[in-house]
Amino acid sequence: MIQLRNIEKTIKSPAGTMWLLRRINLNVREGEFVTIMGPSGAGKTTLLSIVGMLDDGWAGEYVFTDQVVHKLDRKKRAELNRRYIGFVFQSYHLLDNLTVQENIDVPLSYRDIPRTQRASMVADILDRFQIVGKKDLYPNQLSGGQQQLVGVARAVAGNPKLILADEPTGNLHSAQAKEIMELFRRLNEQGTTIIQVTHSEANAAYGNRIIQLKDGWVVDDSAPVKDSATA
Hints:
The radius of gyration is 18 Å and the shape is globular. It has helices at about 45-50, 75-85, 100-110, 115-130, 145-155, 175-190, 200-205, and strands at about 1-15, 15-30, 35, 60-65, 65-70, 85-90, 160-165, 195, 210-215, 215-220. The protein is built from seven helices and ten strands. The strands form two sheets. The chain has a six-stranded mixed beta sheet with strand order 6-7-8-3-9-10, with helices on both faces. The chain has one domain: P-loop containing nucleotide triphosphate hydrolases (Rossmann fold, 3-Layer(aba) Sandwich). It is an alpha/beta fold.
């Protein structure tokens, strides 16, 4: 599904060129649940942004579902993003002036989907996530866990092939975090490919593979250690 070859990214700083990613070579198969870990500044979020086609300033080769991303212009990359990828962010990124129902509809509105079909898709997601009763509420009327649940619902509303999650439980208490991770596991079992960035060993144990980054390099690629809570 994803093939990265010699991906590199630099930025300019007062001290000169700074490397954020160095010679990243990575394959992700469809249906995998992959975790990216490493210390702050290791390049985790940068790598996720490149995979999600939110970042254009990199070098190397990237193939996504047989599309040669590094040869596509920004418009074509954005089309791939909208068609295949859902994002879940630590800070939720819900629009404060829109209701739960309207927030979930936003990514669908960017696609060529008739309004009646979008309404049906949103209704299905509200029911699936058991948040029908909150559809007319605004983000500031929800708890942190509820906002993140809406964020996940919005990410999966268009049935993406890939979900990218950046510290998806970082602002949640342990019970809420477990609820979100169990939801990710169910989505993965249903065939959705998931790549998450996290510092949490407990979250990492839900997946089947951990990519360790340090100073922009991949330093390890292995299976997580399972425990009784996630096995």
